[in-house]
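Progress against Task 2.4 (sequence-to-structure conversion) is shown through the following example record, which the project officer requested during the mid-term review.
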Amino acid sequence: IVKLKGTGIMSNLELNITYILYPGIAGIRKNLTFINHGDDDMQLESIDVEHLNLNSGTTETEAYNHYCRNKHIGPYIGDWDDPVMAFHIAKEEKGIVLINEAPGVLKRIACFQEQNDISAGLTHADQVFPFRKWLKSGESFTTPDVFLMLYEQERSPYAALNFTLPAYVKDFMGLEIFGSEDKPVFIYNTWNPFRTNIDETLIDDLVKAADECGIQEFIIDDGWMVNTYTDRGANDPWWYPEVGDYIIDKTKFPNGLKPIFKDIKKRGMKPGLWLSIGSASTSSKVYREHSEWFVRGANGELANLHSSGNTGLRTACMSTEWTKHISDIILDLV
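Structure tokens generated for the chain above:
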């Protein structure tokens, strides 16, 4: 552990850097601990647990992104699909593998944002899901771990990704799966390729096929809910894309979902049903009647944190009565 103390306006901040080494692996696992020794609250954001400068430039380094399936040249900022990225210097037949243990959408691995740098840690303030933590006086915060692994004499990063990395995960991260009697299950989800184009007949056929294939969990994704609201009259319908009210579409499912779920259970499979827990459509009944349950931005406008590309959604605030609303819907469906 390396302990650092701030100076000047940061004199009340203590930073501890923890390095963990593993026998037989050319790599280092690392985390940061921030301690507030001052009297005032301290704001933490845009944290890079690891930040390095490469000797090679952007055109000489291949970045393997999106679960290391795609090869990319040039600047890149990873998201929740990048728990691991590899940076391969082809002409020197060597490279670096970065593993980021930050949870979900707070994950960030980036390259060439500042000349020849690579970094891993928590999302920055300018990203869609920015990380921020307030430390009160005397409080501490420890970041998720980042693991950096080196390799050489390889024409690609795949030997490190397919052999060294899995061995590290199995031997040192202590996955519970290896000591558990409950192993992963085979799951079918209707989203690919059907999206919202589902109905009772299609689901019946899919359930039978899934049973024959040995599927253990069958999940009905989006498309089971009503997608129009017609209180305003047939000539002036109020359209909305299902999210928030969650009323079963009796045109698609004239007998409801209960018979389908009963059939799924009878065949020995577990049923699942998709909902968006934290958002609603702007034209949904719940949004129109209770806009005070939804998040507002700095400008006072109701905000969408769910997806930057979907302007028809607004994000619910879980400290309001929205929590009871969505809980009641889930319990009713169950």
